[in-house]
Design goal:
The chain is an alpha/beta fold. Helices cover about 40% and strands about 15% of the residues. Helix 3 (about 90-100) links the parallel strand 3 and strand 4.
């Protein structure tokens, strides 16, 4: 049993955790019923709060006499069965990186915490209970702060809780950085104290409260006065109260009244008695107790005293229960309770495993291999299973780590040193062995890594990592601790919180540039419906999380996203073949013709294998050609059994490669390469056997082979699918990496070489190797191909990509055609330059550009409409509504034409509208003009008749003057309609309504006067009537003038406040612009009509009551009928006018004027003209008297 992270020299309070572990193991060992014949032990290690050293602790813990860890030391310890981690999350994560590789269970007290969301829910309801909606929060570090903002802050905001500040505690710093820490602490202190919140959440771990105590004490002790406010601290369960030696005298009043969450715990029987019996005089195996005793009781043991000046000697009889709670608690706290439970959890698991094996008749041997001689010193023996390597000893060594591919005849375990006979062939990749290779490179005769083997190699100055990005993740866990530069020539390594990016130098352009180039490539060919194959979740999740949105924002969506399974081991091959077939089936059934394979080199072998998967799983599947789009980290890779497979599956594929040029001398270097001349290069011999299908005489398993390797075979005779003699993009990057290191070394050592010898110079380099990173980051040179090599501010190669088209041939060869490039300095939308006419497409497309969209594009005149339940780039096409167009394919929305245009029938073009108005040239205008002139002529003719027969009785009886005025008004009414015809201008618009209103009012007032005079004349004929004085011209003139003056006043006000004006109506008619007069004020327009209606109503009323008067005087019947006609016309005018558009509105008003005026003319004057012209015999005074009698 192992635990870790107990720095006894600082936190005496944490000693209880050690005792909880010891107490639990003591109980279990005393209860023989739990683990019969098995005794548990424990090993406690401390990392002094330095997370990076946890790797070394983890390696030491798992390297024992019973378990050989390749390249690591053996020890006398028995086999550990589990590791109980410390309280700090980072420490547990660092341990897990090592322990995971060797399948060690790790139990952290953090893991026994309830769910973090559950804890924050509790804090949330605590705040709501006290109605604290204005709070602050202090997190233990910046990472914890950001995690809270992302995951928990929305939960608080939804419940109405706001944060005045969200801050993080600065890390503890010592030495020269202490002043900086105090300054940062002062800023945090001021933020808290100046805030208006009363409650502050402390979201931290056990060290957070210790740091806060130091901060407040230091700031309170300074001369600068600061206002201290009482705050209610709300602490998470991870924060127990610890105290270091220097804090025991510090006040803790700032925590008075604080609220804290704690892990649910109960008092364990016997624990207090166990603590009370602890005595340093008898606990010789407790490596912590003496240090704890000295710190807790402020004394020294006599064995430690050398000068006799110690004031207080530890007797060992001091009582722990006398210590204050801030130093040590005798009751079991939450963290100790978790450790106690963790020990029992491991024990019960062991019991269950032990019992099941006993039932099967087997006994667990926990101590196998006791007779082995333990190894206590650094040794160059026991070399690990790093089967193939090449080494040349010089003053400085540049290391290269590559994850090779092997096939294992047995499943690999880490319980024994693997045998060389296990290696069958290059198939299987073990990325976790990168740790072993990293440790071997670090441990040299010039640098001793504690607890690790020595070796005869010289100084390693840098490591060139393999083509797969994930290799860097494994490698960096070790190399970053010792500040070894790492040059990555494959895809970018995903950085996490445990990596130090300053040690990475990527000979690979910015990956965002590659993604943007792929997006621009898809958009160039309008491929918006694609498939995506990514690596397994451990390597491909970054792409989904960080890159997928870049495609969506550009309108590209995915028919499918599939992950390539992890590399199979022997027992899982059948399962993986089925998994590969499922991927192949999805690809072939997909309607997407373009598939992105965003993977690494080894996945190319899977891609080549996909068309033939159906042969292994016996599930036939019809094959369709696809356009494969591959990133630069995916170069052509072939394994031996694929050498005779056709390459037509990738014919027409498009891929990106790092921009490169041919290196002079490289081909010649390859041509003279012979296996027989490379004695120290074991990798070349293995490659030779596989490439030429032969065996060397001493090749072990292949001794009986008929085809013997001579070593003189020519690499140029190999097909390209096995070996390329021209330099590839990744080989070009390795070439540049070597020169980068060389130039950086030159820059670093040049000043020293002028003053000192080489030996001192190299020794200085060993002592200051961390300085080498700066020289690597700032290096800039031209390589032998004339291309500049330099890094940008992020440590990435400042270059771009070439776009390659793959053309394959039946003889297993292929050709790469450069069709474009991706420039690193261009704007994001212009990074791609491509020559599409040079592309060779897959055979199925008959050299036509492939179409890859979810559905055919919407033609112009239509817009896209989303299909429910399908991705956003799947849509139906909807014809644009009336008044709108779309003039491009796949328009998201239709848009209206400008006001002076209208859509054509196809809704894909805007046509200029025709300008129209009621003109004299069109039929309607001519008809209305003719009608107006005709009735004007009739009016003039009637006037002439009445003037000619002015002395006849019938003319005299009808008030000649009013008759003349009425006829002239009707004549002008007919003529005023001409103002409504023709193109409107300012004068016409001002005159036409006012002229019509005044003239018609004169006509109506004349009719009203005639009607009133008829009534008064009848009344005046009665004896003694006083009405006689009102009968005469004066009354008629007064009526006509007053009524006309009222209408003129209304028209004048109209022209003064809101006069009519010419207007172009763009909206009434779809295809026309109507030139019209805007009336300015609709109220004034209807006021004019309303006054005429008022006159009409009075005239009709008076005439209706006078209709039974004697015929000789009675004109009322005709007036009544004329008013009925007039009212009918203008009542029907209003709805007709409002429902009419364009030039027809003017036509409706002209018709109403003509119709009403003609009605008055006909109804009033037609009977009189009939008598005057056709029946003059009735136009005699005697005839009138006769009628009267």
């Amino acid at each position: 049993m192992v635990t870790e992270d107990l720095p006894s020299e600082f936190l005496t309070h944490n000693y209880q955790h050690t005792l909880a572990l010891a107490f639990a193991i003591k109980e279990i060992n005393e209860r023989t019923t739990i683990l019969p014949n098995v005794t548990l032990g424990f090993h406690i290690a401390t990392d002094n709060s330095l997370e990076s050293t946890t790797y070394i602790l983890a390696m030491e813990l798992i390297s024992t006499k019973d378990r050989f860890i390749p390249n690591y030391k053996c020890d006398i310890k028995n086999s550990p069965v589990a590791v109980i981690g410390g309280q700090q999350r980072k420490t547990c994560l660092n341990m897990a990186i090592m322990l995971y590789n060797y399948k060690f269970p790790q139990i952290s007290s953090i893991d026994e915490f309830p769910n973090e969301t559950y804890q924050f829910n509790g804090i949330l309801y605590l705040l709501l209970h006290f109605e604290w909606t204005w709070v602050g929060i202090v997190s233990m570090d910046e990472g914890n702060k950001q995690k809270f903002i992302q995951n928990s802050l929305p939960m608080f905001s939804e419940r109405g809780i706001c944060f005045e500040f969200i801050e993080s505690v600065t890390k503890m710093k010592y030495g020269n950085e202490a002043a900086e820490m105090i300054e940062e602490t002062d800023k945090l202190y001021q933020v808290i104290m100046r805030s208006t919140v009363s409650a502050v959440i402390l979201n931290g771990e056990i060290w957070t409260i210790t740091t806060l105590r130091i901060m407040i004490s230091l700031l309170d002790s300074e001369d600068i006065s600061r206002e201290r406010k009482i705050k209610i601290w709300i602490m998470t369960a991870q924060m127990e109260f610890p105290s270091i030696l220097m804090q025991r005298q510090l006040p803790i009043d700032f925590l008075h009244g604080a609220l804290s969450f704690a892990i649910h715990s109960k008092e364990v029987i016997g624990f207090q008695q166990f603590i009370q019996n602890r005595n340093p005089n008898f606990e010789k195996k407790d490596g912590f107790i003496q240090d704890f005793w000295k710190d807790a009781f402020e004394c020294s043991f006599s064995s430690d005293v050398t000068d006799g000046n110690t004031e207080r000697i530890c007797t060992g009889e001091e009582k722990l229960e006398t210590l204050p709670n801030s130093v040590f608690e005798t009751t079991m706290n939450g963290h100790s309770y978790s450790i106690y439970n963790a020990v029992y959890a491991v024990t019960q698991s062991l019991k269950a495993m032990h019992s099941s094996k006993l039932q099967a008749g087997r006994i667990i041997d926990y101590h196998h291999g006791k007779s082995d001689t333990p190894l206590h010193r650094c040794s160059v023996g026991n070399q690990p299973l790093i089967k193939h390597k090449q080494y040349h000893s010089e003053d400085l060594v540049m290391a290269g780590i590559s994850c090779l591919i092997y096939m294992m005849s047995e499943k690999v375990t880490f319980t024994r040193n693997p045998s060389k006979e296990l290696v069958d062939d290059f198939i299987y990749a073990l990325a976790r062995w990168i740790y072993l290779a990293s440790m071997e490179l670090l441990s040299t005769k010039g640098r001793f890594i504690p607890n690790y083997k020595c070796d005869f190699k010289d100084n390693v100055i840098s490591v060139i990592a393999g083509h797969n990005g994930y290799i860097g993740q494994f490698m960096s866990n070790i190399l970053s601790i010792y500040k070894i530069p790492q040059l990555i020539y494959g895809s970018a390594t995903e950085m996490d919180d445990n990596m130090q990016p300053a040690f990475f130098h990527q000979l690979f352009p910015n990956e965002d540039l590659q993604i943007m180039g792929i997006i621009q490539l898809l958009l160039h060919f309008q491929w918006k419906w694609i498939g995506l194959i990514i690596q397994n979740p451990e390597r491909g999740k970054s792409f989904i999380q960080n890159r997928l949105d870049m495609f969506s924002t550009k309108g590209i969506c995915f028919d499918f996203i599939k992950e390539i399974p992890k590399e199979p081991v022997t027992n899982d091959i059948e399962v993986h073949l089925t998994g590969y077939f499922m991927i192949y089936e999805v690809i072939m059934r997909s309607t997407a013709n373009v598939v992105i394979i965003y993977c690494e080199n080894e996945d190319m072998t899977v891609l080549r294998m996909l068309p033939y998967i159906s042969e292994y799983v016996d599930m036939p599947m019809k094959r369709k050609d696809k356009v494969w789009v591959m990133p630069a980290q995916m170069e052509f890779t072939s394994i031996p059994f694929q050498r005779y497979r056709s390459l037509d599956f990738i014919h027409g594929a498009l891929s990106l490669v790092v921009s490169s040029k041919e290196i002079l001398g490289f081909k010649k270097f390859i041509q003279v390469r012979k296996s027989s001349s490379e004695e120290e290069d074991s990798l070349t011999r293995v490659f030779w056997e596989h490439a030429f299908e032969c065996s060397f005489p001493n090749a072990g398993l292949d001794e009986d082979s008929d085809n013997q390797c001579t070593g003189e075979e020519s690499l140029e005779s190999l097909p390209k699918c096995l070996f390329e003699t021209s330099i590839s993009g990744q080989s070009y990057s390795i070439y540049n990496a070597v020169y980068t290191v060389a130039h950086a070394l030159h820059a670093m050592l040049s000043p020293k070489r002028r003053k000192r010898g080489n030996a001192w110079e190299l020794r200085t380099f060993n002592q200051q190797s961390w300085q080498f990173h700066w020289y690597l980051r700032t290096v800039s040179f031209n390589n032998s191909a004339g291309e500049m090599v330099s890094f940008d501010e992020r440590g990435e190669l400042a270059t771009g990509f070439d776009v390659i088209n793959w053309v394959t041939f039946p003889n297993q060869s292929f050709h790469r055609i450069k069709i474009g490039n991706i420039a690193p300095v261009a704007p994001p939308e212009n990074v791609l330059t491509i020559s599409a006419e040079d592309i060779i497409w897959p055979t199925m497309f008959n050299q036509a550009q492939p179409f890859s969209m979810c559905n055919p594009p919407c033609s112009s005149g239509c817009s896209k409409i989303k299909i429910e339940g399908k991705p956003f780039c799947c849509y139906d096409c909807l014809l644009c509504p009336e008044g709108k167009i779309s003039n491009k394919t796949d328009a998201d929305d239709c848009f209206p034409c400008s006001e002076d245009h209208y859509p054509n029938k196809a809704h894909n073009l805007c046509i200029p509208k025709h300008i129209t108005f009621l003109s004299y040239e069109e039929t309607l205008g001519v008809s209305l003009t003719t009608t107006a002139f005709f009735f004007s002529f009739i009016s003039a003719l009637v006037l002439h008749i009445f003037i000619k027969h002015r002395d006849t009785p019938i003319v005299k009886a009808n008030n000649r003057n009013l008759t003349y005025i009425l006829l002239i008004a009707l004549l002008l009414s007919f003529l005023c309609t001409l103002l409504f015809i023709g193109e409107p201008d300012q004068v016409k618009c001002l005159m036409r309504q006012t002229t019509f209103g005044i003239i018609f009012s004169v006509a109506l007032s004349c009719i009203l006067a005639k009607t009133i005079i008829v009534v008064l004349a009848f009344m005046a004929t009665k004896p003694g009537s006083k009405m006689r004085k009102w009968v005469g011209k004066r009354l008629a003139n007064v009526i006509v003038l007053s009524c006309s003056l009222v209408q003129a006043t209304i028209s004048g006000v109209w022209l003064a406040i809101s006069p009519p004006f010419p207007h172009s109506d763009m909206h009434s008619m779809t295809e026309e612009i109507v030139l019209e007069c805007n009336e300015g004020s609709a109220f004034m327009f209807y006021s004019v009509l309303g006054f005429m209606g008022f006159l009409t109503a009075i005239s009709f009323t008076v005439a209706f009551f006078a209709r039974k008067l004697p015929d000789s005087f009675n004109e009322a019947k005709f007036i009544t009928f004329s008013m009925l006609v007039f009212c009918s016309v203008w009542i029907s005018f209003v709805p007709t006018y409002l429902s009419t558009k364009g030039k027809y509105m003017a036509a409706v008003e002209i018709f109403s004027i003509l119709a009403s005026a003609a009605g008055l003319l006909g109804c009033i004057f037609a009977p009189k003209c009939y008598i005057i012209v056709l029946r003059p015999d009735l136009n005699r005074k005697g005839q009138l008297i006769k009628k009267q009698n």
